[in-house]
Amino acid sequence: MAAPSAPAIDPVTLAVPFFILAIVLEILLARLGKVKAVYEAKDTATSLLMGFGSGIAGLLTGGVVFAASVWVYKYHLFDIPMSAAWAWLAIFLLEDFTYYWFHRLSHERRFWWAAHVNHHTSQHYNLATALRQTWTGATAGTWALWLPLSLLGFPPAMIAIQKGISLVYQFWIHTEAVRRLPVWVEALFNTPSHHRVHHARNPRYLDSNYAGILIIWDRMFGTFVPEIDEEPCRYGVVKNLGDFNILRVAFHEWVGIFSDLLTAKSLREASGYLFGAPGWSPDGSRQTSTMLKAQWADMQTAEPVKTDPAAAS
Amino acid sequence: MTLKYIITQLVTLAILGGIMGLVAWVKIPRATPPLDEAEVKRRLAEDFPQTPLDQIWLALDGAGAVARSDDLALLLFRMGDSYVSRSMAWSQALQAQAIKGRFWFRFNDFAAPKASLALAPDWTRAAMGETI
To answer: CB-based contact (8 Å) between B32 and chain A?
Structure first.
């Protein structure tokens, strides 16, 4: 058996010219009033520099992550050929399934949220926001979630290529320029509409739509929330950042965890601060997404039902 | 680290700089008209639901506000074309430093360490004089 090698193609590298052209096009079309898109200079600079830094961080850690995948592959259970169409279909589904759980974990547990939160710190939703990527993702270790695919027998290069395809797919859905796609597309795939909801901080929309390419996982596991025209998405995080400092964007949640750990009075508190839901606190004085959603639901129940006089007549 | 890699990174940075320049040139941010009380109430209600406001002080430039809710101060301040909110103890808010026409509020929060608002010069006195 030949030793597994690095992928011959990197979809993300190949897509970089497309990323640049698409961003420029979105900006120009918005300027001409042809599409809906909002760009603020400092916000855009922050997103682009986060993307640049993420590339460097990925270069520093990518070797270790790929080496781990190669090491696990030494013990693979089945021989899965890269040349078989069924193998690509299988890796497409399994990688997307893995991505769903990676993404859910990255939102629902603070240690991994600390690595992912930067992607959500923009109060804008445009193609540049897609590039606001993590600097600490590899450090958080979520890449380990993909190792079972190597153990199954998917060549590491195949997994890397599919991960790249998923990342490239997710670029174009970061836009307000596309409202809704045909029903069957919205039913099957992650779309701009579904992903706008994912980036929204309205309580109704929190912790939803974790999909990578296929939205079916959210529908299956109960995390799907549709975009409602009556409630426009407000982008960002529950407590937005106070400036555009990229070091703050990259590390603020890690600093928050460290500060909290210094005050922890027991192992339970320490583990809560590390692995509890973002917003967890020992005395409940802070709010988690679940608490915010419950508060919002209570308010909806308490408010009188609005009736449309025209409809009543 | 190869020369090719370094050149690639420099070219990438130049392209990103070009995009940043384009964004600055085309000027397509959100409109940020001066805040009024209704808008402050609407925005604070989003971030602090079920928190009644006793009094609101608008910044003179319309780019922020301080609101009092019992023993809490709710602050709203502009960042770019967006707004950020934070809360702090009312007593702490009253100790904001006034420097060159702006009041500086410091939060114990690495994600938003400080905010400055162009409040009226006698804001502290007016705020202390308010009765609930």
So the answer is: no
